[in-house]
Amino acid sequence: MKVRHLFAICLILASAGTPKLAFAEAETEYLAIFMEGKKVGYAIQSRLVADGKVSTSEEVSLTISRVNVPVTINTTETHIETTNGEPLGFEVTQEFAGMPMKVAGTIDKQGKINLIATSMGTEQKSTPDWPSGAMMAEALRLLTLKKGLKQGTSYTTKIFSPALLQAIDAEILIGPKQNVDLLGRVVALTEVTSTLNMPGTGEIISTTYVDQDLRTQKSVMPVAGMQVEMVACAREFALGQNDVFELVDKLFLPSPQPLDDVASAKSITYYLTPTEPNTNLIIPSGDNQKVRRLGNGTIVVTVEPVAPPANIRFPYKGRDKTILEALNPTRFLQSDEKQIIELAHRAIGNTKDTAQAVRRIEAFVADYIDNKSLSVGYASAAEVAESRQGDCTEHAVLTAAMCRAVGIPAQVVTGLAYVSQWHTLQNGFGGHAWTQAYIGDKWVGLDAAFKSAGLGGYEPGHIALAVGNGNPENFLNLAKTIGLLKIDKVTINKK
Fold it and tell me: Considering 246, 268, 299, which residue would you say is the last residue of a domain?
């Protein structure tokens, strides 16, 4: 079981909708990052104007401990614009446990993004549309300068996130000027509240405190029920030693009762209650999970895994656009890679039955990943095929990519899964990832990581929070939701 909140926090920080930079050319700002009061990393923000172009960069580095295993994620995001804020290009580099990934794009005059994603030395090219009206860092800075810092000023905009490769709707509200503690130094700063409407996740609200030149001096953002803070400071402190911050036990939801023999249950019904008032939790319904909301705010989730129909041949030949999308290679599910295609055919053998094929792929991945490493931050299917290491997410992306490689639609699911014992944690739900494959007219759950651990695979102890193509942003809803709910009641329906 792997918790991906660290990567989600990096994405949220990189996508924050407040003006980060307004200082002179080639100036650099250093910020220390804190979680629950402990220093866990740093951010470096810089802006350079040269040859009629503005390059705005932010480097974020976070290190946490997961069951005494340190994990560091480094993300650098650069926006390139004209001096009047017109988008020219961007670049994002991400490194997890020595596994680098890079996404670079240039925007042409026809409004297309010439995109190149590089992973494991392999390039993927595409030309998506530039989202009309979306802003990057310099355009947002110019807009904020125009609107000013008068209390009560509010406006909306669209912010392009290179890390997510999509535009995010944002609402900006200028608050009062107040004294703010910056690591013992008290400064009068203006409060700026940004409400980001993250696709598939809902609202994420951050509060930033800026000086009269719009330099960010402090920002506060709730993630997974914890406070994440960035505070401007000296370079030496920002880049200095981090505290040891154990994340896993803070992101584990206790069960109201031990759940015995979950795999034998026909279905399990969970009664979930938001821990904060007026919280809109996004929990999807699907073939394996039904969701209903009660008047008192309780969310009732019933998980009943569907049985795969027999005698369904693959590859899929239907015309449903959603299902067809679940066949395409993506930057994390490289189903067109030679090694993944070869592994998929090795796994399925000579079967033509879809249900049998996906079970064989599930079992193959469970055995193939022979280094169940907690040190992997986030790996693509191609990287997993090469390294044969990782935890639940690596099992999920490789399973999905291998299914797609032989024409079986598949998606990666992120959510919560019950375990009676995991290291020092007992009887609760932790962040998890698994796969679902389309067979006949149903999505069927697969869990190679659970099968590898001797837990049988996908069963009613899984609560889905997001479904997608294996991109890291799918973990944003998990990171947001896990800190905002509790499980009050569980009802088990035996077969």
Answer: 246
